[in-house]
Write a structure and sequence with these properties.
The structure is a single chain. This protein has about 250 residues and is of the alpha/beta class. The protein has a single domain, classed as NAD(P)-binding Rossmann-like Domain (Rossmann fold, 3-Layer(aba) Sandwich), CATH 3.40.50. It has eight helices and seven strands. The protein has a seven-stranded parallel sheet, sandwiched between helices. Strand 2 (about 35-40), helix 2 and strand 3 (about 60-65) form a beta-alpha-beta unit. Helix 1 crosses helix 8.
Length: about 250
């Protein structure tokens, strides 16, 4: 298990009050990391904090909106004040406020998607870079989506933002590799979360998906949490600039 040992590492996970982020926070804590649970809702973060503590893990909850740079700066500052330098960053929080064609989509919607899903990740990566550079070690994980690998007539802006996250990981991997900082993406398929509730609770769509996916099921949040542990741990120390697809095999049919 030493390959997956994160004891003493400080990790921040955005959007970790539910779904995939919640699983990642729990799994990092089980591997020994000290985890900052963060989302807009402090009460929801504190519920995850209690879960981690009940399992013997160490965590704290800090509310922050990914759309607010000042709040993200405060997130980093509070983490520093409590635990010192940051070793692991997981950018999981994202938004998808629009379902429909790109044709006619308002500038305001497009700006919001790109700000929350790409610009905020860029902010956070740059905020943790000084710590990681100083210690010549760090792991950043951006939670993207298989949407970034194919087109869509109804969630085009979201998919565009997720493709941009993949390129952000590649760019930073090249730029920060000499400082031994690894930057990777996870691209989940359809996962049973509140974010994808409209999809996985549709009986027709669910039956179709489960009949077509090679693994014959939708994903669970814990199917993603372990991948984040791998990418953050010594087991993933020679992996950077990559996008790991976790979709039950849908993209390779």
């Amino acid at each position: 298990m030493s390959l997956f040992n994160l004891k003493g590492q400080v990790a921040i996970v955005t959007g970790s009050s539910r779904g995939i982020g919640r699983s990642i926070a729990n799994q990092l804590a089980k591997a020994g990391a000290k985890v900052v649970v963060s989302s807009r809702n402090l009460d929801a973060c504190e519920a995850v904090l209690k879960e981690i503590q009940a399992e013997g893990g160490e965590a704290m909850a800090i509310a922050a909106s990914i759309s607010n740079k000042a709040q993200l700066e405060a997130l980093i500052a509070q983490t520093h004040a409590a635990w010192g330098g940051i070793d692991i960053l997981v950018c999981n929080a994202a938004t998808n406020p629009y379902y429909g064609p790109t044709t006619g989509m308002s500038d305001e919607v497009f700006d919001k998607v790109m700000r929350n899903n790409v610009l905020s990740n860029t902010w956070l990566c740059n905020m943790v870079y000084p710590d990681m550079k100083a210690q010549k070690n760090g792991a950043i994980v951006l939670v993207s989506s298989i949407g970034g690998l194919h087109g869509s007539a109804v969630i085009g802006a979201y998919n565009l933002s997720k493709a941009a996250d993949m390129q952000l990981a590649r760019n930073l991997a090249v730029e920060w590799g000499p400082d031994n900082i690894r930057v990777n993406c996870i691209a989940p398929g359809l996962i049973k979360t509140d974010f994808a509730k409209a999809l996985h609770e549709d009986p027709v769509l669910s039956a179709k998906y489960n009949s077509q996916a090679p693994l014959r099921r939708m994903g669970e949040p814990d199917d993603i949490g372990g991948i984040a542990v791998f990418l953050a741990s010594p087991a993933g120390q020679y992996v950077t600039g990559q996008t790991i697809v976790a979709d039950g095999g849908m993209m390779i049919r």
